[in-house]
C-alpha cells in the first residue's frame, strides 16, 4: 500500500499524490498539512495526478499546489519530477525516451526522459510574455499597467529596485543584483512576492550574471517561500537576461541546490533540463491520515 511518492529536483521537493494509489482528498488544507515540515511529510508543494488514466500519445493532466495550499499553474521542476514518477511506475509506457505531454492549467508542456536512471528530464515551458497585462502588474496608483515589463522601477519599502517581470504559465519577477544570497531572498523576496502591484503575487528571482553562459540565482517562491531551486524561476532568469542582452541562448543556471541547463529558442521558447530523483514512498500514519481526511469534511 502506498499513499505518496516524494521527489526532489535540486532540493526543490514535492509530494506526488497519485489517485491510482490513494483516495486522499487534495484540498488547500490537506496540501498545507502534507507539506508541513513538522506535522506532515514536508515539501515545497504537491503534485496531484494523473487526473485521468494516462495513455501514451494523450496529454496527461495533473494539478500543482504550493506548500501554502495555493494553486500554481506550472512548475518546471514539478513537471520534470512528475514525468519521472510516471516513468518509474510504468517504465514500459513512459521511460523509453520518447517525448510525451503533461497538461496543467497553464497548458501543455512537452517532457522527455533523457536518462531515467540518472533522473535527467527535459521540459519545454513555452514562450514567456514580458507584458504587464499578462503578469498582471499594476501601476503605483493601483490601475492596470500596460506595455513591456523590462527594467521596470519598483519601490519596496526603502528599496528602489529595477526589475524585469514576465509570465510563463506563472508570474516571475527577476531582480538583477551584485550578489544573490539566501538572506537577501528571505528578507526582500516576500516583500516583492506579496507586493500590491502584483495582484496574483509573483515568484521572485535574484539574479547575478556571472558570464554570458552562467547565471547565479536565489529564489523566493510564490506560495512556498525560500527554495533551494526552482525550474520556472531558472527559466525566468535566463529569459530576462536574454531579453536584456546579458546572456547567450544556452546558459547554466546555478542555484544553492544545484544547476540546470536552460535553452532559449529564437522565438523565446524555453527548454529546461536537469536532474530529479525520488526521495521516498510512504503511507500516512493513522493520526495524520485522520487529520487529512477531516480536511475533506471541512471542505464540504
Ligand atoms: N518550484 C517550481 C515553481 C512552483 C510554482 C511557484 N511557486 C508558483 O506559485 O508559481 C518550479 O520549479 O518552477
UniProtKB/TrEMBL annotation:
This is Diaminopimelate epimerase. Its main location: cytoplasm. InterPro entries: DAP_epimerase_DapF. One of its GO terms (molecular function) is diaminopimelate epimerase activity. Belongs to the diaminopimelate epimerase family. PANTHER family: DIAMINOPIMELATE EPIMERASE, DIAMINOPIMELATE EPIMERASE, CHLOROPLASTIC. Substrate binds at residues 12, 66, 76-77, 170, 203, 221-222, 231-232. Pathway: Amino-acid biosynthesis; L-lysine biosynthesis via DAP pathway; DL-2,6-diaminopimelate from LL-2,6-diaminopimelate: step 1/1. The keyword Amino-acid biosynthesis applies. The record marks 172, 221 as: Could be important to modulate the pK values of the two catalytic cysteine residues. Keywords: Amino-acid biosynthesis, Cytoplasm, Isomerase, Lysine biosynthesis. Its EC number is 5.1.1.7. It holds the Pfam family DAP_epimerase. It catalyses: (2S,6S)-2,6-diaminopimelate = meso-2,6-diaminopimelate. Catalyzes the stereoinversion of LL-2,6-diaminopimelate (L,L-DAP) to meso-diaminopimelate (meso-DAP), a precursor of L-lysine and an essential component of the bacterial peptidoglycan. It is found in: Cytoplasm.
Amino acid at each position: 500500500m502506498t499513499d505518496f511518492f516524494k521527489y526532489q529536483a535540486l532540493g526543490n521537493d514535492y509530494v506526488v499524490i497519485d489517485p491510482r494509489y490513494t483516495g486522499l482528498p487534495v484540498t488547500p488544507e490537506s496540501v498545507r498539512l502534507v507539506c508541513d515540515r513538522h506535522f506532515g511529510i514536508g515539501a515545497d508543494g504537491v503534485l496531484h495526478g494523473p487526473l485521468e488514466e494516462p495513455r501514451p500519445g494523450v496529454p496527461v493532466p495533473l494539478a500543482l499546489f504550493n506548500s501554502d495550499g495555493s494553486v500554481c499553474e506550472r512548475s518546471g521542476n514539478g513537471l520534470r519530477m512528475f514525468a519521472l514518477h510516471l516513468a518509474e511506475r510504468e517504465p514500459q509506457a513512459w521511460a523509453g525516451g520518447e517525448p510525451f505531454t503533461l497538461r496543467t492549467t497553464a497548458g501543455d508542456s512537452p517532457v522527455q526522459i533523457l536518462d531515467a536512471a540518472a533522473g535527467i528530464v527535459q521540459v519545454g515551458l513555452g514562450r514567456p510574455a514580458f507584458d504587464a497585462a499578462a503578469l498582471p502588474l499594476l501601476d503605483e496608483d493601483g490601475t492596470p499597467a500596460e506595455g513591456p515589463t523590462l527594467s521596470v522601477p519598483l519601490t519596496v519599502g526603502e528599496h528602489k529596485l529595477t526589475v524585469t517581470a514576465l509570465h510563463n504559465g506563472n508570474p516571475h519577477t527577476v531582480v538583477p543584483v551584485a550578489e544573490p544570497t539566501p538572506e537577501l531572498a528571505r528578507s526582500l523576496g516576500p516583500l516583492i512576492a506579496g507586493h500590491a502591484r502584483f495582484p496574483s503575487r509573483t515568484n521572485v528571482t535574484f539574479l547575478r550574471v556571472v558570464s554570458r553562459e552562467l547565471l547565479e540565482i536565489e529564489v523566493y517562491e510564490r506560495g512556498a517561500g525560500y527554495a533551494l531551486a526552482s525550474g520556472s524561476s531558472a527559466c525566468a532568469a535566463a529569459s530576462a537576461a536574454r531579453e536584456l542582452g546579458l546572456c547567450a541562448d544556452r546558459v547554466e543556471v546555478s542555484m544553492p541546490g544545484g544547476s540546470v541547463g536552460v535553452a532559449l529558442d529564437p522565438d523565446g521558447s524555453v527548454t529546461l533540463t536537469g536532474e530529479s530523483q525520488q526521495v521516498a514512498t510512504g503511507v500516512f500514519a493513522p493520526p495524520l491520515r485522520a487529520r487529512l481526511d477531516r480536511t475533506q469534511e471541512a471542505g464540504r
